[in-house]
Design brief:
Elements (H helix, E strand, L loop, with lengths): L2 E5 L3 H12 L3 E6 L10 E2 L8 E2 L6 H4 L2 H5 L9 E2 L3 E6 L5 E4 L3 H7 L4 H13 L1 H8 L10 H11 L3 H5 L5 H11 L11 H15 L3 E2 L4 H13 L3 E4 L14 E4 L3 H8 L5 H8 L6 E10 L7 H4 L1 E6 L3 H12 L9 E4 L13 E10 L8 H11 L3 H4 E7 L1 H7 L15 H6 L15 E3 L13 H14 L2
Parallel strand pairs: 1-2, 1-10, 2-9, 6-12, 10-16
Antiparallel strand pairs: 3-4, 5-8, 6-7, 11-14, 11-15, 12-13, 13-14
Amino acid sequence: MTTATVVGAGPNGLAAAAALARAGLEVTVLEAADEIGGGTRSGEATVPGLLHDHCSAVHPMAVGSSFLNRLGLDRHGLRWAWPEIDCAHPLDSGGAGVLHRSVTGTAADLGADGTLWRRLFEGPSAAFGTVGDAVMGPLLRPPRHPVRLARFGVPALAPASLLAKAFRTEEGRALWGGVAAHAFHPLERPLTASVGLGIVTAGHHYGWPVAVGGSRRITDALAAVVREHGGKIETGVRVRSPADLPRTDVTLWDLTPTALAAILGDLLPPRIARAYRRYRYGPAAFKVDFAVEGGIPWRAEAARRAGTVHVGGSYAEVAATERDIYAGRMPQRPFVLVGQQYLADPSRSTGDLHPVWSYAHVPNGYTGDATAAITAQIERFAPGFRDRVVATTVRTTAEFAEYNPNYVGGDIMTGTTNAPRLLFGPRPTLQPYDTGVEGHYLCSAATPPGAGAHGMCGAHAAARALRRLRG
């Protein structure tokens, strides 16, 4: 029987293992940590009984992942739940930009910007089920539906700042800027619109759901598929060199390019080794989990019903903070993402005590404490928030890197989202999963389509490995 080893049991490693096991290979997954899941883990972080997601929390890309949907993960307990409102972006005026699952509903709330919102998202979101696979893979390949993809792809080539200029209301600009800021990249750079367009388009098609019982349920379901098809998963096994691997026909690596370069060393072709060693990491996340009595008292009513709240003020303020963190400067008022997953999944709460998930965008390797800045930003748009906080737990950039070594310097995107990476992956090539070493493939979030719990990086790498095995 053909054998495969997968190093790393994050969502991409598990997805790769599931694909290979379903294809009939004898698969072994090796995970250095004591617990599988990478960024898709959950647990009690503040007080007993409250369930917090450790990193990945809201899943518009995962719920629409064609690969995950083919696996029948519902058979293994994965269920999705949606909040009433996907996302809100409150402003100092007391108003907010509001993202509904419905394009029509979002456009109606945006007033003068409603027509623009419909023009940008109505057609692409309706067609996302058709073109989603093209978006969720290497961009430099012939598309199956070129005309439909062009309607999505042409605006994606632009800087997010260029699209922001087309909005007439502060609510519309801020809502767009907050979503585009998920790129962790200056919004004036080329292709930064692609991240915002992808998230919004997928969200309008599938919504912004959470996994009932925490993001760990995605991990559990993927692991169940691996084992269902005869695969083995071993934890506490760290691979430091090829000598640590069992004899195997193919090896897939759910690691960063720099980590893989350190392991494979001189086995890598020199040009690929240089690219992997020079791979650039981007800004980081500083996370604070809160236990909040009665929930957050947002001034904007929509924010009280939103699963995700973007806390950053106006578009201009968000754009300035993203420039600062990319340049290594910590802003006084950072851009903060707040997750209220309990609104969709009440099982995460205990009575009127609720888990609130948040992180700020900070410079890579930031050594300060952003807890006060995050708390102040939430208080700014929700006066009285501090008085409701019962407990907090902090994860610094260094602790993020310890929790998951793929998060170098606290970079939860596994690499800077500049134009070369968005187009090619970790190096200039049409085969981003190939390492140049026979039988070895890279399947981490450093490869297309990038970060998220969608598993598509692992699925594409496994497909590449299977094609090569079959000649």
